Amino acid sequence: MGIIVQKFGGSSVATTEKLKKVCNHIIKEFEKKNDVAVIVSAQGKTTDRLITEEKEITVSPNKREHDVLVSTGEQITISKLAIMLSEMGYKAISLAGWQIPIITDGNFGNAKIKSIKAETILDLFDKGYIVIIAGFQGINENGEITTLGRGGSDTTAVAIAASLHADKCDIYTDVDGVFTTDPRIVEDVKKLDMISYDEMLELSSLGAKVLHNRCVEIGKKFDIPIVVKDTAKEESEGTIVENSKFLENMEISGIAKDDNISRVTVMGLENKIGKTYKVFNLLAEHKINVDTIVQSFGESINKNLSFTIKTADVPEAVELLESNLEYISAREIICFDNLSKVSIVGIGMTNRTGIAAKMFEALYEQNINMHLISTSEIKVTVLVNQDEADNAVKAIHNKFFK
After folding, report:
1. Residues 263/307, Cβ–Cβ less than 8 Å
2. For residues 43 and 17, what is the distance between their CA atoms, to the nearest angstrom?
3. 394 exposure class (CB count in 10 Å sphere: 0-12, 13-18, 19+)
4. Under 8 Å CB-to-CB from 374, ≥6 apart: which residues?
5. Which of 218, 219, 270, 328 has the most neighbouring CB atoms within 10 Å?
6. How far apart (Å, rounded) are the C-alpha atoms in residues 224 and 215?
7. Residue 29 and residue 177: Cα distance in Å, rounded?
8. How far apart are CA 358 and CA 336, in angstroms?
9. At a CB cut-off of 8 Å and minimum separation 6, what does 117 contact?
């Protein structure tokens, strides 16, 4: 007998028919004499619909009330699922985030989990209940409803698994595991039987949409195996995310693409200690996330500093930097839009030579220019024109996985 946590995303619970399939997955684990906690998202496009309706009232809603509104989608799902399981003869109970409670910080719209009262769930297990929990939400220390932002239900699921010391956390979705790249770009992708936490973290951060990086971070910290499975399949081995020495046999594990990226270059930055800090501290104070940083050095008294940001953040970032040129001691700010990050990831890269050269050869053969290159022990990222990004992914995938 063990503890199993299952998570079902919005597409998996979108209709009554799909909810029945979800019930079958739950019952299958429960009949194995396991205690089962189930975390669910809002059905289908419910959250999008609520946000659209909200915009009919205002484009600048109060953040507290926004979280109260969008948290209701998950509550509809948990009640429907609990009712359905009860009708099938099983004891099931639904819990919103505040009923456990899941305590978060006060950052409405993107709250972080601080603690979970696992005893509430364990007591219900002892009474024979299947526990259905609303993902994506919690309450702050003032008792106000908060939401966890993008990937919030994944984060809830793995955090619940960690608090319960669960055997594993099954993430059910509309794909049968983690693939070497996006199947919508490359037809002959390969499914991975397993992938390490570090590799999954990199792929998630670099644009892969299978798991959110926050849930992988929690899984790694508390050593909770995460299994990505296909809801539509009754039997799905999926892909397990954990640590394994056998993963080093592969050159790379996957290729990720992230669109709508812009490159910002701070030109003529004074080459003195503290100037780079001023640039990034200024951006951090305004919560502008920065990635892929390259700084040029030379004998000149000035240097150039380039970094990537989401295109949506460009207007604020450029205005902020241009209004502080004197403060940061720079000459001008230049921006390049319509770019994409294409990255290869693999812990096997650590002990192998020529991986980067192989990637660059694939791009050279397709006449694809690289605007910027960034590397770490387990990844190589290049910046390419957005209209060439899919071809870049295909070329690199053919080079490594054919």
Report:
1. yes
2. 12
3. middle
4. 292, 293, 294, 380, 381, 382
5. 219
6. 10
7. 19
8. 27
9. 100, 101, 103
- At a CB cut-off of 8 Å and minimum separation 6, what does 91 contact? 127, 128, 129, 130
Residue pLDDT, tens place only, 93-120: 999 999 999 999 999 999 999 999 999 9
Look up tokens 């539509």; give the residue. 232
CA–CA gap between residue 59 and residue 48 (Å, rounded) = 14
Three-state secondary-structure class, residue 197: helix
Helix (H, G, I), strand (E, B) or coil at 301: coil
State pTM to two decimals. 0.86
Residue given tokens 């799905």 in the structure block? 236
Q: Which residues of the chain have pLDDT under 70?
A: 244-249, 297-300
Q: Taking a C-beta distance cutoff of 8 angstroms, is the pair 169, 224 a contact?
A: yes
Helix-strand-coil split of the chain, %, nearest 5: 40, 25, 35
